[in-house]
Amino acid sequence: MLMLQNAAPQLAEAAEQGGIQKFFADLSQSFEKTFITDERWKFFLDGTLATLRIAFFAALLGILLGFLLAAVRSTHDMRLLGRKSRTFSDVILKILNTLCNLYITVIRGTPAVIQVMIMYFIIFANSRNKEVAAVLSFGINSGAYVAEIVRSGIMSIDKGQFEASRSLGFDYKSTMFHIILPQAFKNILPALGNEFIVLIKETSVAAYVGISELTYVGNLVRSRTYEAFFPLIADALIYLAIVLILSFLLKKLERRLRNSDH
């Protein structure tokens, strides 16, 4: 009996060491199944590249749409707000502004995942190019948010600068491109950068329509290995790395623009 009592701590220690060894052995096996077996690490690489492609082209489309919408809305606010339309061009501007408001309201008022599904299952129902559908969907979605960001930046510039530029002989177009937009861009850069970060993470909903981006790949590997830890953690770390790199580049650009003012 005494021998058993003396051996009890050693048995407990051995069991504990055996449990730790088993834990690390299972972890190693899970890692191997997730990344090494069948070269599944290539799935994550392909998914990351697909995510970056979709986010990049969607961001370009969003910037283009956003600046166009912001130009229409800010022009309407500065020229026609508070007075009746007098010319044919004023009426056209009011109609365009109404359409822009409708577009922004609809896009911002509906979930991105629904927009992706409408784009893929309805508009691109006869097309097999999933990435194009995703780019258009996310680009159109981002354009609505970029439009409001840019418009707020334009409207934040003092109206006296418009009047001063006109007195110097600049027309409206030259005033916007050479005086107003450069200043507005510096003001909206943090918000614009945040929109791009949100866009990168938002591309994860493309997995709902079977687009092979990062989240879809993580779920695919998980379904084949029956292991959830490494696929999900890998997805999270890759998204985090992309966001950290983008944040670093944006801060560097902000610092450079701030230094150029002095």
Protein model, in words:
- By secondary structure, this protein is mostly helical.
- It has a domain at 53-204: Orthogonal Bundle (MetI-like fold).
- Helix content is 83%, strand content 0%.
- The longest helix is centred in the N-terminal third of the chain and has 39 residues, at 41-79.
Q: Could you describe the largest sheet, including whether it forms a barrel?
A: none
CATH architecture of the domain at 53-204: Orthogonal Bundle
Integer-rounded radius of gyration: 27 Å
Shape: elongated
Overall pLDDT score: 84
Distance between the termini: 85 Å
User: What percent of residues are in strands?
Assistant: under 5%
Low-confidence stretches: none
CATH superfamily of the domain at 53-204: MetI-like
CATH class of the domain at 53-204: Mainly Alpha
Task: Offer a quick outline of the entry.
With 262 residues, this protein is mostly helical.
Topology:
Layout: H1 2-36, H2 41-79, H3 88-108, H4 112-123, H5 130-155, H6 159-167, H7 172-202, H8 214-225, H9 229-260
Helix pairs in contact: 2-3, 2-5, 2-8, 3-5, 4-5, 5-7, 6-7, 7-9, 8-9
